Amino acid sequence: MTSALKTIGLAMACHMGLALLCGGAYAQAFGPRSAPNATPLPPGAVGNVSVPRGAPGATMDIGDQPGLVPPEDDTAQMDPAYRRQPVYFRTTEAPGTIIISTSDRYLYLVEGNNRAMRYGIGVGRDGFQWQGLEKISRKAEWPDWTPPAEMIQRQPYLPRFMAGGPGNPMGARALYLGGTVYRIHGTNQPDTIGYAVSSGCFRLVNSDIIDLYGRVPVGTKVIIRQAVTL
Amino acid sequence: MSGPSFLRSGAFPMTRSLSVKTVRTMALAALAAGAAMALTAHGAAAQTLKAVKDRGTLNCGVSTGIAGFSAQVDGKWTGFDVDFCKAVATAVLNDPAKVNYVPLNAEERFSALQGGKVDLLSRNSTWTLEREAKLKLLFGPVTYYDGQGFLVPASRNISSALELDGAKVCVQAGTTAASYARDYFAANNMKIELVTQPGVQELVKAYESGACNAMTTDVSQLYALRTGFAKPVDHIVLPDVITKEPLGPVVKQGDDEWFNVVKWTHYAMLNGEELGVSSLSLDEALKSDKPDVKRLVGREGGYGAALGLTDDFAVRIIKAVGNYGEVFERNVGTGSKLAIPRGVNQLWSLGGIQYAPPVR
N or C: chain A end with fewer CB closer than 10 Å? Predict the structure, then answer.
């Protein structure tokens, strides 16, 4: 079994009421502002290599572009492979669960009967930091953006605060993951879908995050799967 | 990629006969007789591995042109099935270029294999009992699970074929697709209106002109045809697959050693993907302390030599063509205009049914 599945297994055990048995791990994993079930990935998992989109390790070296307003039909710029579509998907997870596969840049919303709605995503470096299980704790439309200090350090030109709106890098909607700083959000850079990008977490084009936002309630289970490590 | 250029030139992949069968019963009977004779002539003495090594090239049967699977682009054979030929050539001859590609149409493919014209068929052929029992062939692992599906305008906003009640469905005449579609609709208590078209080009025209609001054939072909549409992304292929069309490499019966080489070429690539061993991570993989990775890359176990290859055969294959996922995405997935989702061809652990026996 991969370490990803083991981690998820532990997290699920915790959720099923075994908190006494693994309370320490639970508190550590799900405590505020910590990465859930933080499993450190080896250096190089987020490489600097730029290979074609879709290939493992495809990255795009691009910073945030606050103020950039995406086109209304923001799926038009997307590669067809990353457009929202129903797909065959076998899983033992219940319908309504979100499964994020960072290595192939897809988010699956489980629909049952061996099918899922699949969304193309871009994964920021924060999206590669952890794997395991979370729950959607809050939903927001046109969220404000307060770039964390380490992001300001990397990109000093960024504003300290930006109100929600079309030019906001957080995009049209955000789904907050547990008590962490991480979220599934929209983007004002639709051409970054399919790539690992320099910042942010899990980003969908605005029309997709709006669609997903309408389908999932607070409390939705979110499973993050990272690439298997050697 | 080969898909769009192929289709734009008007040369629809008409010669393909994945599942939508055009092979006649009479032709099959003749092939079966040929198989019996071929078996008598070559029989158990077949030593394909040695023959390929002595010859220095692999004779690999491919299609006469199916976008994404095997087609000539700028004079070079490329595609998912072509990469399998390259993988076997790499395993046996340590060189992906040492392949003699033999394009074969649907009627001649199996007799070419029986007659020894090719060592291996890597050409969108469906694994069926008839072909193993009567034609005396052996199918290796299923490298691509195909099957009949439905393409619909994305604007219909449906996600299941069960929502197609009352649909007008375009289908090509003279194929099995019409009867399968009719059976599927009847079994699910839905009404269907079939709009039959004589050929593939007419099929696409009818669909695009709105004469029908769904189109049916094998899923891989639906994606190929979609690349020729004015706006491909305005159409989706529904996830439902209503027939079984397992495609994979084929060899002659009576040569277990060769059969093993073909099987484990695929399994090496599939295990590579599952273990995270890709063309980009090979250096790291060679240093891995994980026992299953050490066995795959040949640092433990001595399995490759026992197959008649070398212990590092998996490393050489993955270096030359990549692991299964890399080959899939490059030829028919995200790296191609076909943009076929992994779907049922995803690893068993990630939502699909691709499953390789372990290397141990």
Answer: N
Cα nearest neighbour of A103 on chain B: B276
CA B126 to chain centre: 9
Q: What is the pLDDT of residues B48-95, one digit of tens each?
A: 999 999 999 999 999 999 889 999 999 999 999 999 999 999 999 999
Phi, psi of A226 (to 5 degrees): -95, 165
The mean pLDDT value for B133-142 works out to 96
Please name the member of A55, A113, A230 whose beta carbon is closest to the beta carbon of B335.
A55
Interface touch B330/A86, C-beta < 8 Å: no
Integer distance in angstroms from the first to the last C-alpha of chain A?
13
Nearest to B341 among A2, A87, A194 (CB): A87
Q: What pLDDT, in 10s, does the model give residues A85-104?
A: 999 999 999 999 999 999 88
Nearest CA in chain A to B279: A56
**Beta-carbon neighbour count of residue B219 at 10 Å?**
31
Percentage of the residues of chain A whose pLDDT score is greater than 90: 44
Domain boundaries, chain B: 2-145+246-350, 148-243
How far apart are alpha carbons B79 and B281 in whole angstroms?
A: 23
Interface contacts A/B by beta carbons within 8 Å: 96
Q: Which domains does chain A have, with CATH numbers?
A: 41-225 (2.40.440.10)
Are B338 and B67 in contact by the 8 Å Cβ rule? The answer is yes
CATH (one of 3.30.70.100, 2.102.10.10, 2.60.40.1970, 3.40.190.10) for B2-145+246-350 = 3.40.190.10
Contact (CB<8Å) B278/A51? no
Query: Rounded to the nearest 5°, which phi and psi values hold at B118?
Result: -130, 150
What is the band of B1 on the pLDDT scale with cuts at 50, 70, 90? very low
Segment B229-235 long-range contacts (CB within 8 Å, at least 24 positions apart): B229/B204, B232/A80, B232/B337, B233/A75, B233/A78, B233/A80, B233/A83, B233/B154, B234/B153, B234/B154, B234/B155, B235/B151, B235/B152, B235/B153, B235/B154
Q: Which residue in A41, A75, A79, A87 has the most chain B C-beta atoms within 10 A of its own C-beta, making it the best mutation to test that interface?
A: A87
Among chain A, residues having any CB pair with chain B shorter than 8 Å are: 2, 5, 44, 49, 51-57, 75, 78-83, 85-91, 101, 104, 108, 111, 113-118, 194, 225, 227-230
Q: Which fold has domain B148-243?
A: D-Maltodextrin-Binding Protein; domain 2 (3.40.190)
pLDDT bucket at B33, cuts 50 / 70 / 90: low
Tokens 């942010």 belong to residue: A200
**How far is B197 from B153, CA to CA, in rounded Å?**
19
Evaluate whether B2-145+246-350 and B148-243 have a shared fold.
yes
**CA nearest A105 in B: which residue?**
B334
